[in-house]
Amino acid sequence: xxxxxxxxxxxxxxxxxxxxxxxxxxxxxxxxxxxxxxxxxxxxxxxxxxxxxxxxxxxxxxxxxxxxxxxxxxxxxxxxxxxxxxxxxxxxxxxxxxxxxxxxxxxxxxxxxxxxxxxxxxxxxxxxxxxxxxxxxxxxxxxxxxxxxxxxxxxxxxxxxxxxxxxxxxxxxxxxxxxxxxxxxxxxxxxxxxxxxxxxxxxxxxxxxxxxxxxxxxxxxxxxxxxxxxxxxxxxxxxxxxxxxxxxxxxxxxxxxxxxxxxxxxxxxxxxxxxxxxxxxxxxxxxxxxxxxxxxxxxxxxxxxxxxxxxxxxxxxxxxxxxxxxxxxxxxxxxxxxxxxxxxxxxxxxxxxxxxxxxxxxxxxxxxxxxxxxxxxxxxxxxxxxxxxxxxxxxxxxxxxxxxxxxxxxxxxxxxxxxxxxxxxxxxxxxxxxxxxxxxxxxxxxxxxxxxxxxxxxxxxxxxxxxxxxxxxxxxxxxxxxxxxxxxxxx
Length: 491
Known about the structure:
Distance between the termini: 29 Å
Number of helices: 4
Helix content: under 10%
Number of strands: 31
Shape: elongated
Radius of gyration: 24 Å
């Protein structure tokens, strides 16, 4: 971690003002904990009262408190005691689509300071039933939505938490489960800490684990998240903003999409991001995906300590140009070290609700990728102490890509496509594919194929300055096989 990032995070942590600890009990305001009575107005009135009277904790004792959309206000912490549940209504009409953020949520906070959600309780969005009921409303003409892919747009389904432009946020200890859309979004917030929480977010489509959007100063630590969509997800929704000074450490996650992902929306970009000790398992797509495809930057990323078991892909770095203006995404100064990944031959999220899709064929198992575009090379990337174990056994009669110049040139550029490790279909390497890149260092990298491969382990195509140190390649029956292919590699 850079000295600058340590300093910024120290300031963020130590400058968090103490929230007044006056305690108020939600039952004193008349809330009913039977899971049937709709408490929206009561809870909102209680939040407003606490905020207007100096702040404090609004305590929810054991019970189920049914509610629609509520707005958290400055200097208020919702504290959920053990077995307390804030239960989302299954009636979509009980939720607000906020006109400022243009999204639905169970708990909103917009332009508030010193707020929190803490305790041992649960926020349960009852998302499957809510989303299903929203579909019914659309079919009946009660709600306007084009129902693309037979599901409402994600902005027309409530997530559990949406905080926008808030300062000094603490979310600690709670369980977040079953949203109807994304799960928890922190958008353009400053000084956010999310720690020791559990996420079960796989009740419906687009159920992310956590989304950090254009924030400055975020710590996510000691969290366990299971998500149908990207689990640890950084986004940048505005070209004039940037997601920066973020630390994710000592976390565990599973996804039917990606484990750690920057993007896909990457308008402004990402800068000064630190990842430490991340465990990924049973994940459909990549353990690590960094994508700069909407004109934004990815710069100064330090990833140290990732263990991914039963994951569809190890690492995918990608620039592109999906946006229609003149900006092109860039990626510079990325360090990924101390990584161990096991890639299976079979679908890694099989049996989970809302699995990743069955892919169009043909494709053998894809390699890790550092794949820029001709107009935006990926620059200054180091992979150090990285071990990836593949099943091997690729069949050239099933799908084939050669390593001669013509075959390498036949790999499509796909600069405007959704960034995904399998987007090119068959690639010419089984371990690592590098294209349109500069100053790439591979140090103590081990690639293992359990069965014999028709492809080489590493292919580098259009690379300036490729540094190889202690490259270990293991493949059965491969004596004298050329495992590193270089095409148009300079230095």
